[in-house]
């Protein structure tokens, strides 16, 4: 099934050494919320204009990830309400509807489907969390 | 330099299997394969799963780069259109001309489409490829009714698919007087027909179709008897025709009714041309199943490597999958006197029909039919194929009762010879599976699959492979463990004990102490449930909230479209007019759909996430509390009206149901728990279908346990007779604590008991006679849980930190999810349908 996959994009987070390259191509940082508003080891949904972005604070690994909130499987605005975890080393998110899982680092679907989700870089400055758009 | 060139025509299941076999046997060949379809080989047997969420990629038989890894040249979307046998070349549609030393024809078959006037109208489909399914799926979006022409194995599968596509009416039309005429007998067909009707399929037998009506697109079918059936779409499943056209054109011998004639090495009349799979005709037979096709691939590959394997025909045993009714036919299902003796079992109440045919001397099983219950299929098939001597009372084979059957089944497994074929698709014997377990340490189904390929074909043998694996592991003295996931190499029971011993209170703490990695959607809810069963803390306590299953995390069930349902507790189903009014008012105010549930309470659907705390605040202020409809916890205790009003009532079943519901409300368990209390044996509360159910007797109560509904309903069994109210509760305390401690994750009480060695006798000993000496402790533990109960919703709305989590947007708390959509129906709202990409 082709499920409305958007173009995959390299993700980054603030501890990632690749971040410098990311910053160069990222022109627009959106102020999403304060660190204490985010949910530890879970997700929140951020409204960016007309878009819904799922923002995950992987406290356990001290990492941040952002992806589209829409689960491509049945087109549900749900990923921020899912459960995060790991498959081997790879951080992942499981959709609450049918538990399809997606890699938080690449957006790839880990449940064998052809659909990927879009991922966005995240940075934290002065207690504020920013999501980057190219 | 490779020596010989093999060209394979057809990249279907069998063509692919041939490539796999030949490359594993030899590297002396260069292989080129042509496929007419646009994609690499996929699992046609499980094609229907494409409608249930599997993607084309999921169905693929191999990874994309498999062909190049094996140095096989693959041409897709390019059917071969001509074979030139004198020049030993083939020509493809896209203009390629290639030489071959050996040619393998694996072109499969095409659906047979009868020549009925109007058959080419829009809305008429066949059911063979992924493209066919895409067409059907799209067309069904604008169709209300559908029909399938043909009531055989494939026709019924297609009919099930139409039901799943949400057509409001699905009809099956069969020309013969009964369904599945090739596999089952008249009595079996009758039973099957009843069961399918109950599933909502309309079945017409004895119907010849004379024309297909409609302007451009189909609108109705006309039959020979003058009757008519309106339908928006039609799927043809009237049999298959081998695709022998290439062979025919090039002068290779074909059968009078189609099929490329092959010998026992799969060679056609031209010895350098082979035919395998559904296009091949062996001994006047076309084999429309995957197992014989794979065997043919093996034989042809062996022949090219100068091995002398031969094809000896194949039995056509089959099990119908998917439709929701078990149907199986094995060995010779039809043989009768004087060649054999027949044992029949028929239960028209439950819709079960079983037939076995045994040899006249009573020693061997020859074949049979199973309708409505086919668990014994694998074992019976083995008994036929391995000519296993029958026990003195062969009727036990189909009457084997619950409790005793596990023992006989394992004895059966042990008794199978090593060469017994377990996976007939891949030709894997019992011996190789046991070997994989013992020597290569395959201790999961996945490991066995990748090591031996057993279970990778139709999948029908997987239950048996699993039993064999566990059996062998036990024999090797291995302690068989059901580990949870990659993060916890422990069983649920071990984890329960360890969390208790180490006094761990939070998910992260458990993971740090007993697990590894960062957790996942399997272990998080499981650990959360254990923590709740052990300590009964508020489940949304900081740190534990995100380890809850989504429904628990938001204390409500998520619905299609992303809204939630609200189910307040209505203990025993008793409610005052004032409270009914409140529910009505709240539902009206927040625009909720209301429905009386099957559990004697009221469900309000369509609540926005951010409305949940507001709704619950109003309900709690009016004296309601959480109904735990979202948790693996006690749901409802149904009641009948009982002695307060009913002229037959022996005791006050409502009061007792309320007492029980209030005692166990909120109790977290491996799976949800349901109960009921009936005031007399007329059983209006259906207590015998519950995890624990109570029925009033003249002298007290009878307690039944381990029943459930769901997809595999099972009646509860009597645990204790004529006990008084307090004793009954004691027994339930012990029973529930025993279950909570020892059941596997997501196992209801019925399957838990089915797996328990010693069955009900053992359970009664533990609960009533306290054979483990645990009773006092369990009663104390239960009392502690009862005393620590709190209404989660009350705690949630009082805690601003928790309340905050019910906003849809973290940065726009006052806004609701704008993507939520509703439709209207009978004056209320309903969730908009899934939008498919
Ligand atoms: C609302 C209700 C249907 C209705 O409109 O009547 C219902 C609705 C759901 N049932 Fe049910 N079941 C409802 C009565 C039943 C019954 C009948 C009964 O309890 O008497 C059964 C069969 C009896 C039994 O459980 O043994 C039943 C067997 C199931 C099962 C199968 C359980 C099994 O052991 O196989 C599931 C799946 C599961 O729990 O894993 C399920 C799961 C569900 C879920 C929770 C599916 C989901 O995750 O979204 C449904 C959503 C509920 C919601 O509120 O959003 N529901 N469900 C009934 C709620 C009763 C209540 O007041 O709490
Ligand atoms: C819905 C469904 C359910 C089924 N369920 C079961 C089941 O439960 N159990 C079971 O045992 N079997 C089942 N079957 C049957 C099973 O799928 C077939 O037996 C099996 O696919 C046969 O394999 P094959 O390679 O011979 O034919 P196919 O898989 O049909 O492959 C033949 C391929 O050759 C291609 N081809 C044809 N002509 C040319 C040409 N000239 N050039 C190039 N390529 C060509 C075709 O396009 C096709 O891709 C089911 C089939 C269907 C459709
Ligand atoms: S039977 Fe239960 S789970 Fe299935 S659709 Fe109905 S309510 Fe949902
Ligand atoms: S909608 Fe996300 S897994 Fe189905």
In short:
Chain B: Residues 317-388 form the NADH-rubredoxin oxidoreductase C-terminal domain. The complex is a heterodimer of chains A (134) and B (837). Chain A has 134 residues and is mainly beta.
Attribute tags:
heterodimer, A: 134 residues, mainly beta, Rieske Iron-sulfur Protein, four-stranded antiparallel β-sheet, 1 helix, 5% helix, globular, B: 837 residues, alpha/beta, FAD/NAD(P)-binding domain, five-stranded parallel β-sheet, 38 strands, binds siroheme, binds flavin-adenine dinucleotide, binds FE2/S2 (inorganic) cluster, Nitrite reductase (NADH) large subunit (chain B), heme binding (chain B), heme (chain B), 4Fe-4S (chain B), 2Fe-2S (chain B)
Architecture blueprint of SSEs:
The complex is a heterodimer of chains A (134) and B (837).
Chain A: H1 19-25, E1 28-34, E2 42-48, E3 51-58, E4 63-68, E5 70-71, E6 76-77, E7 83-87, E8 90-94, E9 101-103, E10 119-120, E11 122-125, E12 128-133
Antiparallel strand pairs in A: 1-12, 2-3, 3-4, 4-10, 5-6, 7-8, 8-9, 11-12
Chain B: E1 4-9, H1 13-25, E2 29-34, H2 56-59, H3 66-69, E3 72-75, E4 80-84, E5 89-92, E6 97-99, E7 102-105, E8 109-111, E9 124-126, H4 130-140, E10 145-149, H5 153-164, E11 169-173, H6 186-198, E12 201-204, E13 209-213, E14 220-223, E15 228-230, E16 233-236, E17 240-242, H7 245-249, E18 260-262, E19 273-275, E20 280-282, E21 285-286, H8 290-304, E22 318-320, E23 327-331, E24 340-347, E25 352-359, E26 365-371, H9 377-385, H10 396-399, H11 405-415, E27 421-423, E28 428-429, H12 430-439, H13 445-452, H14 462-475, H15 492-501, H16 507-514, H17 523-535, H18 550-553, E29 564-566, H19 577-589, E30 593-596, E31 602-607, H20 612-621, E32 634-639, H21 653-664, E33 673-678, E34 692-696, E35 701-705, E36 717-723, H22 725-742, H23 749-755, H24 759-767, H25 775-787, H26 792-798, H27 800-804, E37 822-825, E38 828-831
Parallel strand pairs in B: 1-2, 1-7, 2-3, 7-19, 9-16, 10-11, 10-16, 11-12, 18-20, 32-33, 33-34
Antiparallel strand pairs in B: 4-5, 5-6, 8-17, 13-14, 14-15, 20-21, 22-23, 23-26, 24-25, 25-26, 27-28, 29-31, 30-31, 34-35, 35-36, 37-38
Helix pairs in contact in B: 1-8, 12-14, 15-17, 20-26, 22-25
The site of flavin-adenine dinucleotide has 35 residues of chain B, from helix 1, helix 5 and helix 8.
């Amino acid at each position: 099934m082709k499920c409305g996959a958007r173009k995959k994009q390299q993700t980054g987070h603030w501890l990632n050494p690749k971040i410098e390259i990311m910053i160069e191509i990222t022109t627009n940082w959106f102020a999403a919320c304060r660190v204490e508003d985010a949910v530890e080891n879970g997700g929140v949904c951020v409204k960016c204009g007309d878009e819904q972005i799922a923002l995950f604070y992987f406290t356990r690994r001290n990492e941040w990830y952002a992806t589209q909130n829409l689960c491509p499987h049945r087109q549900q605005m749900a990923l921020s309400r899912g459960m995060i975890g790991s498959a081997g080393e790879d951080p992942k998110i499981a959709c609450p509807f049918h538990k399809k899982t997606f890699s938080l680092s690449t957006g790839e679907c880990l449940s064998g489907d052809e659909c990927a989700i879009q991922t966005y870089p995240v940075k934290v400055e002065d207690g504020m969390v920013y999501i980057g758009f190219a | 330099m490779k020596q010989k060139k093999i060209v394979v025509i057809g990249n279907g299941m069998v063509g692919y299997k041939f490539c796999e076999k030949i490359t594993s046997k030899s590297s002396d060949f260069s292989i080129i394969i042509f496929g007419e379809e646009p994609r690499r080989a996929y699992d046609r047997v499980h094609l229907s799963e494409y409608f249930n969420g599997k993607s084309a990629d999921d169905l693929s038989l191999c990874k994309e780069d498999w062909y190049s890894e094996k140095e096989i040249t693959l041409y897709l979307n390019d059917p071969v259109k001509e074979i030139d046998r004198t020049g030993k070349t083939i020509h493809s549609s896209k203009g390629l001309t290639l030489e071959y030393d050996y040619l393998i024809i694996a072109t499969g078959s095409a659906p047979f489409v009868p020549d009925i006037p109007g058959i080419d109208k829009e809305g008429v489909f066949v059911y063979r490829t992924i493209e066919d399914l895409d067409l059907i799926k799209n067309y069904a979006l604008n169709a209300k009714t559908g029909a399938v022409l043909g009531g055989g194995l494939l026709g019924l599968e297609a009919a099930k698919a139409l039901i799943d596509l949400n057509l409001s009416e699905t009809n099956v039309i069969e020309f013969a007087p009964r369904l599945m005429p090739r596999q089952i007998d008249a009595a079996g067909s009758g039973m099957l027909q009843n069961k399918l009707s109950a599933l909502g399929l309309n079945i017409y037998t004895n119907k010849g179709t004379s024309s297909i009506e409609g302007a451009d697109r189909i609108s109705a079918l006309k039959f020979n008897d003058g009757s008519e059936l309106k339908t928006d779409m039609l799927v043809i499943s009237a049999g298959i025709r081998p695709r022998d056209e290439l062979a025919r054109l090039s002068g290779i011998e074909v059968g009078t009714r189609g099929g490329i004639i092959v010998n026992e090495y799969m060679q056609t009349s031209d010895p350098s041309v082979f035919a395998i799979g559904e296009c091949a005709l062996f001994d006047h037979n076309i084999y429309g199943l995957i197992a014989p096709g794979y065997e043919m691939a093996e034989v042809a590959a062996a022949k090219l490597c100068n091995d002398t394997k031969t094809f000896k025909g194949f039995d056509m045993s089959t099990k119908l999958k998917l439709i929701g009714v078990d149907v199986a036919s094995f060995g010779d299902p039809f043989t009768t006197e004087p060649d054999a003796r027949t044992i029949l079992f028929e239960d028209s109440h439950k819709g079960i029909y079983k037939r076995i045919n045994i040899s006249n001397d009573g020693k061997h099983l020859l074949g049979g039919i199973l309708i409505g219950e086919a668990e014994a299929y694998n074992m019976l098939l083995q008994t036929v194929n391995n000519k296993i001597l029958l026990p003195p009372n062969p009727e036990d084979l189909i009457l084997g009762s619950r409790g005793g059957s596990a023992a006989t089944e394992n004895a059966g497994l042990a008794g199978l010879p090593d060469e017994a074929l377990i996976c007939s698709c891949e030709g894997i014997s019992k011996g190789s599976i046991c070997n994989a377990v013992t020597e290569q340490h395959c201790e999961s189904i996945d490991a066995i699959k990748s090591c031996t390929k057993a279970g990778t074909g139709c999948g029908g043998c997987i239950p048996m492979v699993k039993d064999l694996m566990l059996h062998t592991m036990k024999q090797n003295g291995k302690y068989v463990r059901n580990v949870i996931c990659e993060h916890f190499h422990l069983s649920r029971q071990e984890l329960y004990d360890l969390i208790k011993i180490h006094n761990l209170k939070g998910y992260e703490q458990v993971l740090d102490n007993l697990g590894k990695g960062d957790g996942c959607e399997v272990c998080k809810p499981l650990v959360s449930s254990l923590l709740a069963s052990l300590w009964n803390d508020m489940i949304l306590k900081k740190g534990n909230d995100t380890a809850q299953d989504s429904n628990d995390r938001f204390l409500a069930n998520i619905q299609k479209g992303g809204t939630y349902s609200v189910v307040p507790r209505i203990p025993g189903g008793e409610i005052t007019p004032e409270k009914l009014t409140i529910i009505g008012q709240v539902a009206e105010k927040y625009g909720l759909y209301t429905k009386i549930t099957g559990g004697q309470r009221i469900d309000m659907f369509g609540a926005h996430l951010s409305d949940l705390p507001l709704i619950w605040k109003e309900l709690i202020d009016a004296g309601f509390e959480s109904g735990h409809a979202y948790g693996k916890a006690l749901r409802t205790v149904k009641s009948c009206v009982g002695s307060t009003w009913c002229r037959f009532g022996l005791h006050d079943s409502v009061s007792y149901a309320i007492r029980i519901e209030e005692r166990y409300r909120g109790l977290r368990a491996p799976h949800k728990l349901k109960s009921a209390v009936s005031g007399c044996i007329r059983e209006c509360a259906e207590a015998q279908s519950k995890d624990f159910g109570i029925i009033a007797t003249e002298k007290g109560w009878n307690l039944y346990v381990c029943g459930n509904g769901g997809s595999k309903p099972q009646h509860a069994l009597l645990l204790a007779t004529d006990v008084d109210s307090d004793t009954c509760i004691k027994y339930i305390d012990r029973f529930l604590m025993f279950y909570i401690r020892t059941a596997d994750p997501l196992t209801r009480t019925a399957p838990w008991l089915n797996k328990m060695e010693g069955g009900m006798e053992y359970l009664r000993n533990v609960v009533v006679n306290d054979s483990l000496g645990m009773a006092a402790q369990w009663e104390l533990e239960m009392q502690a849980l009862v005393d620590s109960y709190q209404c989660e919703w009350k705690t949630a709305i009082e805690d601003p930190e928790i309340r905050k989590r019910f906003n849809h947007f973290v940065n726009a708390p006052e806004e609701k999810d704008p993507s939520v959509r509703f439709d209207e129906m009978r004056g209320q709202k309903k969730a908009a349908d899934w939008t498919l990409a």
